[in-house]
Design brief:
mainly alpha, rod-shaped, single chain, 3-stranded antiparallel beta sheet, 4% strand
Length: 342
């Protein structure tokens, strides 16, 4: 198994960190790529939930693939171990076969039987024929050997054979177990080797760990895109809320200014009323000035005429005031008026 460096990118961590710091995030995280529970102001944060779930999915994909690859590695290792055991069994079986052959050779020497004698040749045919009948291992017999084997077998074990042949046949029967061990071991080696070879060839075609890493990164990238979208939406909502608050404050300020203006108008009216009670003539004068100012603001020509008229009235009023203050008699006033006419 080829295990590359594995890293799971959470995505938008900086933005989330700033956002969390500003809003007082309280979080708890379990190490090792597990789910992260995050709260903002005591409430569950959907953005942290999105990131935690993406991490969990990505980690599970990589973890499951890694576990599967480890199991496959363990299986291959077990097969390699069995192959070694099969080779050991082969070696032990061959060693036992050689020992049986050595014991038989010593037996032949003990009985003084020549290698080329008919007794020895008949023994060897009987050994092959008996193995053929037991069927434990494949045995090849020529037609002549098959015919002679049947003839010798018909004589009966222990009756038509010599003592040497009986003992040798018994010793040869011990070979059956070793022949079977050899056959089974060879078959096991072939099967286990074929499985290992096929698995390794399949691994050359693709890398499960690399594919799992790519899939995990795609999950995290998709989650990052969704998180960015959620942050943008949240920012828009905050901007809208701020704009609404500012508009509300502006309306409140406007209402306050209107109320202040109304209070100023009321205070002005009260002041004018008090002045009228204290000095009626001056109040009339101020009233005329106010009316003149209001009209003048509407028409420039009218404004000029009224301004001249107002000035004239002011002069006459001032003269009258001076005369009153000087306590002039009515005749003097008439004399002044005559002078004005002249």
């Amino acid at each position: 198994m080829r295990v590359n460096s594995i890293s799971i990118y959470a995505g938008a961590d900086t933005v989330s960190a700033d956002r969390a710091d500003k809003s007082g995030r309280i979080g708890s995280q379990k190490q090792g790529g597990s789910v992260q529970a995050a709260f903002l102001n005591g409430q569950f944060d959907p953005i942290e939930q999105k990131r935690a779930m993406a991490k969990k999915r990505a980690y599970k994909i990589v973890s499951d693939t890694y576990t599967g690859e480890r199991k496959l590695d363990d299986d291959l290792k077990a097969r390699e171990d069995r192959i070694k055991q099969h080779y050991k069994t082969l070696a032990d079986a061959n060693r036992e076969l050689r020992k049986i052959d050595e014991d038989k050779e010593n037996l032949r020497s003990e009985y003084g039987v020549d290698k080329d004698s008919q007794e020895q040749k008949d023994l060897e045919i009987l050994e092959k024929y008996n193995r053929y009948k037991r069927g434990n291992v494949p045995v090849h017999l020529s037609p002549e050997e098959m015919t002679r084997g049947k003839e010798l077998d018909a004589q009966g074990y222990g009756k038509g054979y010599t003592e040497y042949q009986n003992r040798a046949l018994q010793m040869d029967s011990y070979k059956d177990t070793q022949y079977k061990n050899i056959s089974d071991s060879k078959k096991g080696i072939v099967e286990e080797s074929a499985t290992i070879r096929a698995t390794n060839l399949e691994r050359l075609k693709k890398d499960p760990m690399l594919e799992a890493q790519d899939e995990a990164e795609e999950i995290m990238e998709a989650a990052s895109d969704e998180i960015i979208g959620m942050l943008v939406d949240e920012a828009k909502d905050n901007i809208d809320e701020t704009a609404e608050e500012e508009q509300k404050k502006a309306e409140e300020r406007k209402e306050e200014e209107k109320e202040e203006q109304e209070k100023l108008e009321e205070a002005k009216e009260r002041r004018e009323a008090m002045e009228a009670l204290a000095d009626p003539e001056k109040a009339k004068k101020e009233h005329r000035r106010t009316e003149t100012t209001e009209v003048l603001s509407a028409d420039p020509m009218t404004e000029g005429l009224l301004k001249m008229e107002n000035i004239k009235s002011d002069i006459q009023q001032e003269v009258s005031d001076m005369m009153l203050k000087m306590k002039l008699v009515a005749e003097d006033i008439k004399g002044i008026k005559v002078d004005e006419v002249l």
